[in-house]
Amino acid sequence: MFIDQKSQQISLALIRISVQVRRQDLRSRLERMAFQLLEDVAGDQFEFALNDIEIIKSLSELGKDIYQIEPINAKIIAKELGILESAIRQNFGINSGNVDIGDIFSKSLAIPEPYSGNQKADAASSILEPILNTADSAADFGQNNHSQSSNSHSSNGNGNGINSTIRQSAIIDIIRQSKKIGLKDVLAAFPDVSERTLRYDLQKLCIQGVLDRIGNGGPATYYTLKM
Q: Distance between CA 224 and CA 210 in Å, rounded?
């Protein structure tokens, strides 16, 4: 299946990129997300996979801005993630109605240090291009669909206006009181916030090591505070 193959290619590329990342915190996150994306796609958890894609995009962009990831590698990863995202949305009918606020954060932070001259772009590109050399049909597919979906995830979705950080803190407080909760409990606590946004909040808290997700998806899945 195209989606399975593409996720495997991206995961392998992330592992290879992470080897060259000097910052341990960024390297470990890239490696963890490589496996998380692979697991969610293999387990048909495609909404979680879309959240994984957004997190990987953010980590890759950050790595580029702080000179830990070659710009050409970050560009290739972003392109391939866009193709995968479009394929998931088209094949499984997952749409997003979130408002695009990407223009607010479009400016890159100015970093005073010069880019390391010993990491040549040509050498860097050779790491990824053999992995991500997709057939023309797949590339055409990504170009036709990426324009519609590329902006759909640029916002975390603040739902009823609650700042995402405050909302995530509230989720932690609810779990602290209840010991464990399911997605339906979170939806009931935030009736004006979209399910996709709340899934993103839970996914982010899991990635940050705050929560544990127990179960393989569906109604039986619940979340607890990491001990």
A: 9
Closest CA to 107 of 153, 73, 157, 65: 65
pLDDT in tens, 84-140: 999 998 887 776 555 555 666 665 555 555 545 454 445 455 455 555 554 444 444
The Cα–Cα gap between 49 and 41 comes to: 6
What whole-number distance in Å separates Cα of residue 41 and Cα of residue 185? Answer: 25
* Residue 164: Cβ within 10 Å count: 17
Residue pair 49/40 in contact by the 8 Å Cβ criterion = yes
Please state, in angstroms and rounded to a whole number, the distance separating the CA atoms of residues 52 and 46. Answer: 9
Helix, strand, or coil (residue 43): coil
- Neighbouring-strand partners of residue 182: 222
Ranges assigned E (strand) in 90-133? none
Residues 145, 92: Cα–Cα separation, whole Å: 14
33 close to 14: Cβ distance less than 8 angstroms: yes
Helix (H) or strand (E) segment spanning residue 177: helix 164-178
